[in-house]
Automatic annotation (TrEMBL):
Keywords: ATP-binding, Helicase, Hydrolase, Nucleotide-binding. The lineage of its organism: Eukaryota, Fungi, Dikarya, Ascomycota, Pezizomycotina. It is an enzyme of class 3 (hydrolase). The gene is srs2. Its EC number is 3.6.4.12. This is ATP-dependent DNA helicase srs2. The keyword Nucleotide-binding applies.
Amino acid sequence: MESFLKGLNTAQKAAVTSKASILQVLAPPGSGKTKTLTSRVAYLLAHRGFSPQNVICCTFTIKAAREMRERLRGLVGGDLESKLMLGTFHSICRRYLVTYGHLIGIPNNFGIADSDDSLGIIKRLQKQLKFGMDPRAARNKISHRKARGQTIEKVNKTVSKTAEAQEFADIFRRYEDALATSNLLDYDDLLLRCVELLQRYPACVSNIEALLIDEFQDTNNVQFELMKLLASAKKRITVVGDPDQSIYGFRSAEIENLKRMQEYYPGTVVINLEENYRSSSAVLHLAQDVIEQDTERPSKRLKSTHCYGTLPVLRRLHNPHEEAAWIVSEIKRMTKLTGGCIERSDIAILLRSAFLSLLLEKALANAGIPYKMVGGRRFFDRVEVRIILDYLRTISHPDNSSALLSIINTPARKIGDATVAELNRAAEAAKMSLWTIVQQAVKGEAKLEKKLTKPAEQGLKELVTLIKRGQAKLKVFEPAQAPGQLIELVAKELHFLEYLKKQYQEDWEERWENVKELSLQARDVTLESLTAEDQLPEVDGVKQAKIQGAQEVLSRFLANVALSTEIESGEEGEAKSRITISTIHSAKGLEWPVVFVPAVYEGSIPHSRAEDTNEERRLLYVAMTRAKALLYMTLPVMQSRSESESILSQFLSSGIEHRLKDAGPIFDDKVVQDIATILGRLAPSQESLAKGVTMLEENESQYDDIWPLDGSPRAPSLTTVMEFPFSMLQQGQSLNDAMKSKTNFQQSAKYSTFPNSGFTTASHQMSSTSPHIEPVQIQQKLKSAASASSGQGSIATFFNNGTSKQQIEKENLPLPLPSKGPHVTTIHSGKPQPRIPTELSTHRPGLSTVHNPATTAKRPRPVLEETAESNKRAYACFSSSPIKETCNDTMVQHAMLDCIPEPPKYNTTMSSLQQHRSNTGPSSYKSGMLNTLSKPAALTTLSAMSVISGPVTKKTLGVRRSMNGWADRKNK
Ligand SMILES: Nc1ncnc2c1ncn2[C@@H]1O[C@H](COP(=O)(O)OP(=O)(O)OP(=O)(O)O)[C@@H](O)[C@H]1O
């Protein structure tokens, strides 16, 4: 079979090999749309004999373009893929405009105004015109108009007489003038002008044999027009899309474009893909329930190809600070306890709003966990990088007033705000660029109302000299080396290193590194690469412009910068250890084994300013469906910004919430095995899992039990944690009674904070379960418990109503460890011990149901099916429901082993339990024995659990916990 058909399902193969001229592949997330599109490109090249330079493939992001290129390299081999015209709509349009723009009067050295430039222009206009409209709103409105194909000429013709409409038309007009004066095109212009070009000169695309478009649901009107024009020669179009993932309505995306396309091309063939290859059934079904809340959308079939996996989590935390801290702790817990199966690079935190990253970034930095931002601040937007780039932009396009204004007094050269305002005024009055006025001012020729101060004049002179020197150098630099050499020249002339040292005493080194990195990247630019990237095949009758001198190389280098959307990650090795923080919008089309979605409250998602609730729901759907194996959503119950209580997002509250776990999963064998299976990875060895446990640090737990489940604050100074079953047993209950009590306990625990936060919540728990005890007494008891934990007694002094050691032995129960036994833990000095994981009341470890699409007419719900004997047993043991008849003592005892302190000695009555545990229990139970006497404090958990595995095989694992955890991590 051909390589590009390998591994495709029937529907995918049909789409890849379809003979249809106009083809729509519509499918839900993770069903292989991008894979299918990539394979279709390979098919068209191999079977239809199309030349790659005559095939255009549009992706939504640069990252997607890069990934598709890589996939294609594997499929088509050679350098065929490099000849393909593959990129975002904007980059493809830029190519056409650079090559043919001269035909419609665009000089091929035009600059690109990015969003900041556009906003800067409008802010300056606001200062001059004192208009009331918010500059951002004005920019967005202009962009909306342009995205709908409305040029200023059209706006002028249709503008109504209201003052507001007139004001907007005036801003629009002046904005367009400012762009023209600066020889700039904004992002919308790239598309609009390309439409204009292709309407007037369709011959430019007469060679195009096929057009393929990814993420079609997010195209806007202008892109729809472009589609028609780019494919006008042969009318061969393939698009893939999913209306449920349309999330760019706020940027004028037209969800209707799929329908419009069918109407415009009546012969359109539609192929639906149904199987989801990305996510566990648990994730997929939850996401589907969310999207199905929109009853107006056509229902769609969605089949999972993976096992049920782990239930998604909705975790409540007290406030955004604790939310960030919890996410970091959960990341650490999962990377350690999955024995290497999940790495940091497998994890993404997806944000509805970029500002949410702040606390997360801080928390990650504090923990020494490296991360990369996607869709946030780009490398090119870092202050120090931006300054250098603005000098380059000014040298390249001095009439670009935005760039000139950014650097006019940076580094400071005594040019104050008043001088800048006067220069701007003069430029506006003379209808000249700021650069022209600045040059005149330096020569004393500018018509200024206020005379320049001497220092300001001197400062301007220095600036003009530098810019002119840069321009002069451009004439002598080797073209390909121009950007790199210019960066060095500017940095040297500005004494930029000294400037950074003075300005940023704390992190100047890092900033200087960024400047060096920029220079390195610029040096990587070669004329060939620029030419190859931009080259369009020659077509008869239309003249192409060619890259010639250093000026054009610089101009193209800057255009590439303006069109890049994400920060470059460092070296490959480094990138592997980074987690990803991304906005949900930028995560479109991507996938990760683990996804966190923070801040799932009303006002955040759906966003308070969003106009379309359905689009917000789709946004959450997109975020959820990026997850392969684990999905976490978090809710800070208090919002620090407003000090108000959060309300859970409407998308999760109605009938969905109860189907989510309220705590992170227990990473037992079954859970880890399922994760490995879903990710198509080898399950980690027992050694790796055990090693993971040893890597837990003093303040970490195997369970997600450090933060209260209900979102109450985490006690700042935790003193003692009590172990429920042990204490119950010490109150003289039998094992079975204790198990029954456990059910009640867990249910109450779900609403209390007792098992998680120790001191505070124990008090709370005590007052709720022992109403006869006064709070003061409780505090006293807790104090004595605290002293017990430090070896002066036992927790029994707190709870013990006289249960003797003999009684415990009579019940054939494991003995508690003395004083520092696992049931009493001083948080400051010891690791929390195994205890009843409170989430057991809502989730059962190792009980992921096996989803069988063939036999499951109804989707499995968290009410877990008993599909296998082992599951049945485990179900009974971990259920919060009353113990079932079928659950024998062994099972009860097994369940108890998860909760009660382990005996210091191997207990023969436990042999059957061990056997069972070694088959089904938490992976760490399978570890060999560690010497409990000599173990470091941090190994308490492992050793306590190891004891149960017995001295039968008295071996150590040879695992040594690094004492250098933090330092090591920082070095990564
Ligand atoms: N037939 C298949 N067999 C195995 N894996 C597949 C198959 N088709 C797709 N996949 C895998 O499923 C995952 C999702 O594929 P892809 O990204 O192409 O989906 P998509 O439909 O474009 O998703 P989205 O709409 O969410 O962006 C990828 O990891 C891909 O390799």
